[in-house]
Specification:
The chain has 16 helices and 24 strands. By secondary structure, it is α/β, with parallel strands linked by helices. A seven-stranded mixed β-sheet has the order 14-17-18-13-12-20-21, with helices on both faces. A six-stranded mixed β-sheet has the order 9-8-7-10-11-23, with helices on both faces. Helix 4 crosses helix 5. The longest helix is centred in the N-terminal third of the chain and has 21 residues. The mean pLDDT is 95.
Length: 505
């Protein structure tokens, strides 16, 4: 049996075992609802199982389990909580291969280029938060009041609602549950409908080191499951990654009970290449920045590629050369650089935007631009990595988040011109500049309206690097110690007057 066949068999077996299950009070159980959500393998279109279409009844059970567990969990010393989370990370490491293969099957993301790195990054992030447990502390304040002590404590908030998307479900699950749990909260996780199994497997493994009910997992659609979860009176914190449209609704639903929210939303990110850039790394930066090996399905995808006129053709030709060498195929095939788009719905979204682009007479598809069908790609959701020129900057293709493998190359003359265009968007998630001019780099950092800014590199967010957007791209930062403190604890101010001691010494 080949590695591909072994990977596929292992992943399918796990999908079957987890089908129609939720995690409540430390156990995999059946949901209250009989309604199911089909889960498809993006590489083949085959049905690999189903997830419960949870409703209000399931939400109530999950929240009550979390609330009950919270009463004891919050009293466990932070360092002890950290040790348990570290033990969970060790279990994840031991079953790393199993998790990786299920992640590829679930999402359509290529095993070698995406699933393996994402699993490794998830374990690293878990260990980081576990190791920072001892830093959860308040502050002492000096006072001029005699016999008085002033200080603050950092206390857990309560039940946390965590809602994750389908594009990086493993890393984003860890980014939410690990800091929340270390900080002393309990969690109800709602998985993505299209890719529920890898997050459920991770949680099942993780839960083995935690008291029952500290981590609970449900699945379902927004109106039936997400809304009653966000609005539940015992949910005291909501953390969400997804689209601006849904994020806005979540903020509105949480507002009546003054429930704090963390929102990591979409982006339409600029990737700017100046003529003085090191083109060898900048051209590769077009490929890496667009997240082509994740089918462009990344919030940080640099889909607006600004290239100074003097080097425009050279950069385009270099990018096309690199794109032509990328191999698209079944996500579980270790030879694949690029896997499949998550679903037929998302594929249709990509096709819709490409139709808009191609109807414009100035559009030139310099690479890609086609759905791949037939043969090994039959029934899968495959679309070529695409780079276009000549698309008007006013086009929806240049203005709206596509979440597919489609980027637009835009020429510019001056730095001031490109900065005005780069900031002319309601989004402000990430931005990249390629230049060897230090003064220009510092000006870019100062003027760009984005929360995650890079110069001469284009790496994905990682452990202990604060990440989050501005404007319509979200509220709050994740992945770093500050996020654990700011989002998953609340400050309590304490003033004590010692008075006179009447103790006989």
């Amino acid at each position: 049996m080949s590695n591909f066949e072994k990977n596929l068999e292992q992943a399918i077996n796990n999908a079957k075992r987890l089908t129609d299950k939720i995690l409540i009070d430390g156990k995999l159980i059946s949901a209250q609802t009989n309604n199911k959500i089909p889960v498809l393998n993006p590489s083949t279109g085959d049905n690999i199982g189903s997830a419960p279409q949870c409703n209000k009844d399931d939400v109530n059970i999950a929240v009550e389990s979390a609330h009950k567990a919270f009463q004891k969990w919050k009293k466990i010393p932070a360092r002890e909580r950290g040790k348990m989370v570290a033990a969970g990370a060790k279990r994840l490491e031991e079953r790393k291969s199993e998790i990786e293969t299920l992640l590829s099957l679930d999402t359509g993301n290529a095993l070698r280029t995406q699933a393996i790195p994402e699993t490794g990054a998830s374990i690293e992030l878990t260990n980081m938060f576990a190791g920072l447990s001892g830093e959860l502390k308040g502050e002492n304040y000096p006072t001029n009041i005699p016999n008085s002590i002033h200080y603050t404590t950092r206390d857990p908030i309560g039940v946390v609602c965590a809602i994750v998307p389908w594009n990086a479900p493993l890393f984003l699950t860890v980014a939410k549950i690990a800091p929340a749990i270390v900080a002393g909260n309990s969690v109800v996780l709602k998985t993505a409908e299209q890719a529920p199994f890898c997050a459920l497997l991770l949680s099942e493994i993780f839960q083995q080191e935690l008291p029952p009910g500290v981590l609970n997992v449900i699945s379902g659609y927004g109106e039936e499951c997400g809304e009653p979860l966000v609005t539940h009176e015992k949910v005291r914190k909501v953390t969400f990654t997804g689209s601006f449209t849904v994020g806005k609704i979540i903020a509105q639903k949480a507002a009546p009970k003054l429930c704090p929210v963390t929102l990591e939303l979409g982006g339409k990110n600029p990737n700017i290449i100046m003529s003085d850039a090191d083109l060898d790394i900048a051209i590769q930066g077009v490929i890496d920045g667009m997240r082509y090996t994740r089918q462009g399905q990344a919030c940080t995808a640099g889909s607006r590629v600004y290239i100074q006129e003097k080097i425009y053709d050279k950069v385009l030709n270099g990018a096309v050369e690199k794109l032509s060498k990328l191999k698209m195929g079944n996500a579980l095939d270790e030879n694949s650089d690029i896997g499949a788009i998550i679903s037929e719905e998302q594929l249709k979204r990509t096709l819709h935007y490409m139709d808009i682009a191609k109807k414009n007479s100035t559009t030139n598809v310099v690479h890609g631009g086609n759905q791949i069908t037939g043969g090994d790609y039959k029934n899968g959701f495959f679309y070529e990595p695409t780079l276009m020129s000549g698309v008007p900057v006013s086009s929806p293709v240049c203005q709206e988040e596509i979440f597919g493998p489609v980027a637009c190359a835009i020429p510019f003359k001056t730095f001031d011109e490109v900065m005005n265009s780069a900031n002319d968007t309601p989004f402000g998630l990430s931005a990249v500049l390629w230049t060897q001019n230090l003064s220009r780099a510092l000006q870019f950092v100062e003027e760009i309206e984005a929360g995650f800014v890079q110069v001469n590199q284009c790496v994905a967010p990682r452990a202990n690097v604060s990440y989050g957007g501005l404007k319509m791209s979200g509220l709050g930062k994740e992945y770093a110690f500050d996020s654990m403190v700011n989002h998953f604890t609340q400050s309590k101010t304490v003033l004590i007057n010692r008075g006179k001691s009447n103790i006989d010494i």
